[in-house]
Amino acid sequence: MVLNDLIQIKERELASRKKYVLRCCMAAGCMSSNAQSLKDELEKAVAAAGLKDEVEVRGVGCLKLCCQGPLVQADPAEILYERVKPEDAAAIVAALKGGQAKVSQGDLNHPFFTRQMSIVLANSGIVDPERIDSYIAADGYLALRNALREMEPKEVTDTIVRSGLRGRGGAGFPTGLKWGTVAKSTGTKKYVICNADEGDPGAFMDRSVLESDPHAVLEGMALAAYAVGADQGYIYVRAEYPLAISRLQTAIKQAKQYGLLGSGVFESPFNLTIDLRLGAGAFVCGEETALMASVEGKRGTPRPRPPFPAEKGLWNCPTLINNVETFANVPAIVRNGAEWFAGIGTEKSKGTKVFALAGKIKNTGLIEVPMGTKLRDIVEDMGGGAPDGGTIKAVQTGGPSGGCIPAGSLDTPVDYESLSKLGSIMGSGGMIVMDQATDMVDVARFFMEFCMDESCGKCVPCRAGTAQMHHLLSKIVARKATAEDLAKLEELCDMVKHTSLCGLGQTAPNPVMSTLRFFRGEYTERLQPDTLGRPGTESAVPAGSRAT
Length: 548
Prior knowledge:
By secondary structure, the protein is α/β, with parallel strands linked by helices. Helices cover 41% and strands 14% of the residues.
């Protein structure tokens, strides 16, 4: 394929567009609410009305306001229909000609939509994720073509460095620095891996991107592979995401057919093969060394670092690992320039961030906002606040690795440094809102139980420490703990954080430490002395515990 081919495909696709478009959300959330039947009925209604030459029913990715699905957006009228049933199809089609469909309509002028800034989600809900021509019509693969024809590999890396893009998987490591390290590493074979092992409770950002815009991830990986000198890529995605897997498989097949993957991409010397590897749902495999072990067919357990993957990664070869959202940012950066991206966000946190907004909040769904947006703007304006007249108590960011931020700190800007000061992290983008009825000690226990169950067991601090902490939290919830137990819990938090092998154990205490910091009263009011008025001395771990 050459540039003229891209232009011709784009022109052909745009020329085939019809006067009216009904965009039907076909992401997993709406699919679980019968969106496929809805789309079928819309197509039947269009045919019955004799409007096949005027109306396109397009299956698209996430339309973002997931709590109101299934969703259909009618263009050019820009009407969002909510909670649509298959039997509503005829009325929606009739309304295209000026009628009024008696179907619940959403407000596209609500801050949930107007406060968003879409880079990663720019194509979400617009392109058909199962048609490569739809992606090309949105300037897809233009960045890859320009890079291969007009830029040296180092120029691509320099563009990412100057953009200020940081890894969106949680740690926020400078992406360009990681690319540069892999590019400089010696070795005849190098790999690029997309970490799509999204495992945080309540998180669905990466899944939605893969379901809605898989070609953006493939193009981002191709640009990264060109920059670092890799010719083999892997997407490690959890098997619990069947729709994402299916659309990735379709996208890879189409890209191969168009010559955008394989040998001589865009008639250049650049070659790239991308394959899928399915994970079995182990949370620890989100850690990069455990992920690589799993790709190699081994048990997914972390290994000590150094050496780092950039020097000795997959099969001891230099390996670049970024997550879904990081790669999805890359085509837009290369296409629009580093300065454009660096002009968004804050001084140290550039660009936008995608969040899965969930929990005790009116508007749940997928949002993308500039870095530095205040939590209050997200939770109260975009999210609409707590439902049923409730009040916001806390916001959990970063999943099991993050912390609980109290309502008094909602004016905190969402960036890496500000969240760190509050004992939380950006994480991959889970954002769970809690109302006044939420038991914060029980929240800490929930996340600790998750980490305890997901620990690979390789290192003692994580394997035994999470079990001990969970037991102590359970004692506190049951009002059977003493001040000594609380002190022991805090000691364990410090020990597990500083001695665990990988990020799972190192961050497992975060929800406990943050709730102790901001909601200590919910812990202390449950403590009691023993029957003699002295602190209890019960063992932290009961007999038979797996930590013994």
